[in-house]
Amino acid sequence: MVELTLQALFSGLLAGGTYATLALGLALVFGTMRIINLAHGELVLLAAYVAFEMERSAGLNPLASIPVALVVVGLTALAIYLAVSRIRTDRELNSLLLTFGVAIVLTNLILIVWSADIRSTSSGWFLEGFVIADTLFSMRSEVVFFGVGLALIAATWWWLNHSWLGRALRAVSSNRDAALLMGVNPALVEGLSFVVSGVLATFSGIAIYCATVVFPALGHNLTIKAFVITVLAGMGSVPGVLIGAILIGMGESLTATFAKPSLQELTAMVVFLLILFLRPRGLFGRR
Amino acid sequence: MRAAPRTPLVLAVLLLAYVAVPLAFGGQDYVMSLIIAALTIGGIAVAWALLGNLGGLVSFGHAAFFGVGAYVSALLTLDAGWPVLPAMLAGGLGAAVASVATLPALRLRGPYFALAILAYAHIFKILAVEFESVTGGAGGLLSIPGFPTVLGLELGSKVGAYCLILTIVLAWMAVYAAIRGSTWGLALRAMHDSELATRVVGVPSTHLKALMLLVSAFMTGVIGAFNAHQISFLDPDYAFSGEWTVLPIAAAIFGGYRTVWGPVIGALAVYLVDQLVFKELMPSGHQLIFGLLLGAMILWSPQGLLPLISRLGLRSGEGGDKEGKPGARA
Amino acid sequence: MRQSRFIKGLAAKSLIAGIAGLGAVALAGTAAAEDFALGSHVPLTGKLARVGTGMHEGIAVAVALANERYAGRHSFSVETIDDETSPAKAVAAVEKLAADEVVAFTGGYGSNIIGPASEAAAKADKVYITSGGVAPGLTERGMTGFFRINNSAGYGKAMVGLFDEMGVEKVAILFSNKEATSGMAKYVEKHLEEAGVEVTMHEFDGSTTDFKPIMNNVKLRDRPDAVAMIGYENDYVGILRAGTVLKPDVKAMVGVWSLATSQMNEEFHDLVQNVYGTSLLPYPVEFQGEEAQAFAAKYEELHGQKPDYLGQFGYVQTTLLVDAIVRAFEDDQKIEAGEIAEELRAVEADTLIGDVVFDEKGDNPSFSHRMGQHRGDRVEIVWPKKAQTAEMNFPAVPW
């Protein structure tokens, strides 16, 4: 019983790390621009497929393909931003639909280029077991990318709070006109937040490619999960993303262990609704 | 002033829809099937637009109401031996009852509300899988009874099913138009602009919004029930599929969701052009074109097709009063 | 009116266009016809894109080989429409193909799509043959023109038979909460319990990626002799990876479809070692007999890869249909209503997937799958005894 609980919490914690990395990029754009990028899951998936292609055709380790993936996904994110920034009216709703269109395009492109087969890394190193005290079991990839995820979250948090650009970003998000008056170019800063979100999506995609399998239809599920965690966290709160993600991860693994595995999605959704009703602006929402 | 010039147009459209379309395509089952499917999407789009335009609530989970309506109606006919048409109404009621569970979400705003409804759709789907003794679980329901013959009209035939869904969709459009034109509609739209202002003048905004949610859920539920009896099969994945949310939204936006005609015209355009043209050009993966077009639409004509048509019409010097009828927006 | 003419124009255009790339040839009249156009709807996009594409490739091979086999006498083509994993679109596809006057239908994946699509085919009075839906209800609808060459009982028999031969006493079943998988899980549960085997059930959601919590329950609580996995490729990979990490003390990991395949052996080589799954033929395929070899060669030629089980099923169903069409035609140079169905019902064939004999419901009761086991670079057939290419390696797991 103790062993089961510990393993469930451990699995949930690691899953939470993956979820946090997944959601962080979405949360960043949501926090700064009030835009929900419905193509975020597809950006993550695109990074995974770049890693797959590099591994298949050049025999590269998934980690070694990160630079290429960064360029591909970063540019795609920038392109999405350029499209979104052209929206003039009702930006909240229209950006949803625009990015939804982008998501459809990306999903179908991935399907056409890489077919519907499932893909995952063939690098055995990532899949080796990582066992703590003979009770906590995980794969190396999960532990490695949990660490990477924490580092990314810390870096993002630091960047938003302590760097000039990060502060500019927050200034733009709270008052666009005032920021403009103070010499911040909102378009530049918003574009930057999209690119950073692409960077975060890249790491998330590589992590998913190394631990689980990817297929073209996965992007939609990823977006929804990221979306749930973002809302749970509260408007653009970086620590909230981590805590919300771990909460969902642990909730799922505890349900799978002690109730019924098929109910884990239900747990995630109920937790999400409850928090939303009790704290309509999320766990760490401001204003 | 407003109603008078529109009457001939409405009559012409009705004539076209009830007489010309069956005459032209009645022999081509697959065209009728596509039109029926497009109208199904259009019906949900009207319900979605009602909630979006009048309630100011953007829902990402209308699949929840579609699925509940489908299941309630299918189960009533299969297990309780109800006739199909009353069961479909009950399906709508079932969806409205289910929407009561979503009322707490009304206090949420914008994307929070959208996502909360999506969560409900997920939850309903999981419940449909888990309550196997009632719903048949993941295996779903096979051989759901089809439509009866009413007054000599065989609703089970392609043309019959078409007339049925057409009638339902037109009825929902009438409801939408009636609510929109009523004092409630005025209050609701004022609320859309400034919630504070309407509260000051004493409109119970939450009650009105709740009412819109119930009406929208009822409409969607009836459409879901229609689909269940038409396809004669149901499983949780299908009944609560994201398609039932996403396509209607795209259709409503395409057509222009602030108009009464927009959602349906959008659905017809989106679905038929996608299936008849894009699929021809690109047998697999043609949704890619659809995605591109959706993006382009948002960028260049975010108000939808109708304003676009009228704009083009004006530019060609003809005036916009042909079929686009932008006047419906006023 | 303008709009209506617009749509009509489109409809006419779409009527004309052939899709298969083999050059769809319309069936002109009946008496002198030597060209037969088959209709096919398969999911090439959407959730079932992977399996739909597999079947689609097999159908193309069957048509290409039929053209060689009947060269000079008849020619065949197939007009395919992507049903996008949607029942409504599948129905429209069947109706469109029927309007194009295809002779009969081959294809379809997913019982919920095959159901309405085959009803549309029946309405057009056309035969519909498939291997993509195993739900028992499909053959209980009293349809005379519906045929399928496989069924869930055939898969279940193979799995239960293998467990029986292993002599296991306790089995944990991990299954996805989808239509085909939960139906199969219940079949296996019932028959194992009847055989006195203790069974524990773990139903998981299709979106599950981390199977460690489930596997830990299996390891610490259930302690079964063997694990039965009933899901799809991504589920198998997740379950086996969780097993590799947690190393539960079981004697065998057994799956069903999509597992003992060449693709899984190549792409997830270490992960699937000693794992069992349904498989018709060993791998590398030792195709015996002329037909099988011709099939494999043509498959590689057309698709640049080794055939998998989906291709085999698609090939067999289409070949049976083609031969039935030719027989129906050649007796009197025309095809009467119901004649193709009659010919199919008279079939007694030994095919790549085993014996095919249709009963009056169109089901193939003699269908029984075989179980393969991944061994190094090979997949050996280990059950039933008469089809064995190797003794099963038991107990053995990937870790």
Give the topology, please:
The complex is a heterotrimer of chains A (287), B (330) and C (399).
Chain A: H1 2-33, H2 40-58, H3 66-84, H4 91-114, H5 124-127, E1 129-132, E2 136-139, H6 140-162, H7 164-174, H8 176-181, H9 186-211, H10 218-233, H11 238-258, H12 264-278
Antiparallel strand pairs in A: 1-2
Chain B: H1 7-25, H2 29-54, H3 62-79, H4 84-101, H5 110-130, H6 132-135, E1 149-150, E2 153-154, H7 158-181, H8 183-193, H9 195-200, H10 205-231, H11 236-239, H12 243-255, H13 262-281, H14 287-300, H15 305-315
Antiparallel strand pairs in B: 1-2
Helix pairs in contact in B: 2-7, 2-10, 2-12, 2-13, 3-4, 3-5, 3-10, 4-10, 7-8, 7-10, 12-13
Chain C: H1 2-16, E1 35-42, H2 49-69, E2 75-82, H3 87-99, E3 105-106, H4 111-123, E4 128-130, E5 146-148, H5 152-166, E6 170-176, H6 179-194, E7 198-204, H7 212-222, E8 226-230, H8 233-246, E9 252-255, H9 262-267, E10 276-278, H10 290-303, H11 309-330, H12 339-345, E11 349-351, E12 354-356, E13 371-375, E14 378-383
Parallel strand pairs in C: 1-2, 3-4, 4-5, 6-7, 6-8, 8-9
Antiparallel strand pairs in C: 10-13, 11-12, 13-14
Helix pairs in contact in C: 2-10, 2-11, 3-4, 5-6, 7-8, 11-12
Describe what you observe in this structure.
The complex is a heterotrimer of chains A (287), B (330) and C (399). Chain A has 287 residues and is mainly α. Chain A has a domain at 20-217. Helix content of chain A is 75%, strand content 3%. Chain A contains 12 helices and 2 strands, in the order αααααββααααααα. Chain A has a two-stranded antiparallel ribbon with strand order 1-2. In chain A, a hairpin with a 3-residue loop joins strand 1 (129-132) and strand 2 (136-139). In chain A, helix 1 crosses helix 10 (218-233) and helix 7 (164-174) crosses helix 9. Chain A is globular, with a radius of gyration of 19 Å. With 330 residues, chain B is mainly α. Chain B has a single domain, classed as ABC transporter involved in vitamin B12 uptake, BtuC. Helices cover 72% and strands 1% of the residues of chain B. Chain B has 15 helices and 2 strands. A two-stranded antiparallel ribbon of chain B has the order 1-2. Chain B is globular, with a radius of gyration of 20 Å. The N and C termini of chain B lie close together (12 Å). Chain C is α/β, with parallel strands linked by helices. Chain C has 2 domains: 2-151 and 288-356, Rossmann fold; 153-284 and 370-387, Response regulator (Rossmann fold, 3-Layer(aba) Sandwich). In chain C, 42% of the residues lie in helices and 17% in strands. Chain C contains 12 helices and 14 strands. Chain C has a 4-stranded parallel sheet with strand order 7-6-8-9, with helices on both faces. A 3-stranded parallel sheet of chain C has the order 3-4-5. In chain C, helix 3 runs parallel beside helix 4. Chain C is globular, with a radius of gyration of 22 Å. In chain C, 61% of the residues are buried. Mean pLDDT of chain C is 87; it is low at 1-33. Chain A binds chain B through residues 30, 36, 83, 86-90, 92-94, 96-98, 100-105, 107-109, 111-112, 220, 224, 227-228, 231, 262-263, 265-266, 269-270, 272-273, 276-277, 280-281, and chain B through 58, 104-105, 107-112, 114-116, 118-120, 122-123, 126, 129-130, 242, 246, 249-250, 253, 284-285, 287-288, 290-295, 298-299, 302-303.
